[in-house]
Amino acid sequence: INSFFQPVQQLVQLYTQYQQGKAAIGKIRGLLSSEPSVVPGTRVLPPVEGEIVFDGVTFGYLPDRPVLQGVDLRIAPGETVACVGPTGAGKSTLAKLVTRFYDPSSGKITIDGYDLRDVTLDSLRRQIGVVPQEPFLFAGTLRDNIAFAGPSATDEEVWAAVDAVGLRDLVERSPEGLDTPLHERGQSVSSGERQLLALARAFLASPRVVVLDEATSSLDLRSELRVEAALDALLEGRTAILVAHRLSTAMRADRIIVVDDHRIIESGSHTELVAAGGAYAAMFETWAAHSH
Ligand code: ATP
């Protein structure tokens, strides 16, 4: 029996290797050829309420490899939706589509009924604030870093953002207050403070919609609580999509979607999804068992 199966097994192995090689070449080609090129629309997006709708959205970085397939999702104005799911499932991709980093290969995404493809990138991005996983800080003062999107912000506006995210003590401890220069690349601030500064920056810009890719760096409990409180302040009253790497963050959202297998496989509040006993409930059980 072995003498029959061995060659078959080898063939299967060879074929798998061949497929993997092909995929790798495709991936490299994709990386080389694709600075994402979206064609901006011409309409200026008027001030929005912040309703985001995915209508049958399919997208992949490479033509034969869908990352998202036929995704339908409606986010109501003011609603916070957290995306959870395994690594590589497409959570960040979903978020990037909202900021029009890429366009769906089929289906469409609308904001207040406007197809993202029809509006200017400038008018879109002014109403959608992005907080990346690794927020950048630059050489400049605390004020420069916070008022990045609105350099003409008044002191009152900057302080309001500082207070909203609970950074008053950091500013007051700094020798020149808001005018204290940050070391280049912000080595002089902790990872938690860096996240708070990024949240202050988004708060000051005051967009209707926030797309936030949660930092993965682990924080001590006190910093984590501060970041969570700042997040609550930022997201209050805005539409938000959170790529949540911590279930403790996801739990605070109005709704959680589980992205896996190119689709949204579950959608509901924390309580609903735990009661449903599916993928989210399993993730939560594992998390709860390890964190207490
Ligand atoms: P994580 O939790 O690890 O951040 P994720 O769910 O956010 O994962 P994505 O970053 O959206 O996943 O990636 C989805 C898939 O798309 C992965 O297989 C990833 O390798 C692939 N991918 C992501 N960005 C690119 C890109 N620029 N070019 C090609 N493939 C990409």
TrEMBL record:
Residues in ABC transporter domain copies: 52-286
Subcellular localization: Cell membrane
Protein name: ATP-binding cassette, subfamily B
Annotated source species: Paractinoplanes atraurantiacus
First-to-last residue of the parent protein present: 347 to 638 of 638
